Amino acid sequence: MPITHLLYLHGFRSSPLSAKAQKMAALVAGRHPAVRWWCPQLPPSPQGAMALLEKGLSGWPAKSMAVIGSSLGGFYATAVAERHDCKAVLLNPAVDPARDLANYIGEQTTWQNPGEHFFFEARFVDELRALQAGPLKTPQHYLAIIAKGDEVLDWREMAARYAGAQLQLLEGGDHALSDFDAHLPAILEFLDLA
Predict the structure, then answer these.
(1) What would the DSSP string read from start to end of 43-56?
(2) Cβ neighbours of residue 48 closer than 8 Å, sequence gap 6 or more
(3) Contact, 82 vs 50, CB < 8 A?
(4) Does residue 128 sit in helix, strand or coil?
(5) Measured between alpha carbons, how far is 142 from 148 in angstroms, rounded to an integer?
(6) ∠ CA 132-137-143 to the nearest 5 degrees?
(7) Distance (Å, whole) CA 178 – CA 149
(8) Are 47 and 76 in contact (CB under 8 A)?
(9) CA-CA distance, 184 to 194, in Å (whole number)?
(10) Which fold has domain 5-191?
(11) Cα–Cα distance, 61 to 64 (Å, whole number)
(12) Which pLDDT value is given to residue 106?
């Protein structure tokens, strides 16, 4: 069944203004105008982020919706896909953000707008722990694009977490997937947008 609703989830310290989010938004608007696109600004609280998503997705059709998530957004996308039994595209997805972000408690800025500040609280680490999805129920619902050159996350950990999924392991590359355009054909083929 073609995808009619597409959610995009940005990473930690990122926003809907990220290069990948903007590229996908333009592509969906230009080539698939019938697809409902949603790329919300996620609050710093993981619990708050999931509450926002669950509210926004409440009317979405699980059978024809999909989610794309980058980094921490990939962690959230996995939680969404497991709850809604939908397709997910993961771009260098965070596997254990509770562990990784424990070092970032305190004031942070966003990449796209360094003048914008937010506070990452200690309790958010526990909220991340609570959101950790178990083993994938339907691994074939996932496409994970993982760069071995990711300077932030360990590609081996990502590949192990998404074993059984459709994996694209890239030699080299970086955490931001600077060569994102090269992966759009595979992403679009996997999603089968309406």
Answers:
(1) PS-HHHHHHHHHHH
(2) none
(3) no
(4) helix
(5) 18
(6) 85
(7) 11
(8) no
(9) 16
(10) Rossmann fold (3.40.50)
(11) 6
(12) 92
CA angle 156, 158, 160 (to 5 degrees): 70
Query: How confident is the model at residue 108, as a pLDDT?
Result: 92
Condensed to tens digits (0 to 9), the pLDDT of residues 141-188 reads: 999 999 999 999 999 999 999 999 999 999 999 999 999 999 999 999
Q: Are strands 106-109 and 65-70 parallel, antiparallel or unpaired?
A: unpaired
Per the listing, tokens 């992403």 go with: 187
CA atoms within 13 A on the CB side of 2: 8
* Residue matched to tokens 């710093």: 44
| pLDDT on residue 111 | 84
Instruction: Sort residue 164 into left (φ over 0), alpha (ψ -120 to 50) or beta.
Output: left
| Token code pair at residue 147 | 């760069």
- Both structure tokens of 11: 């990473």
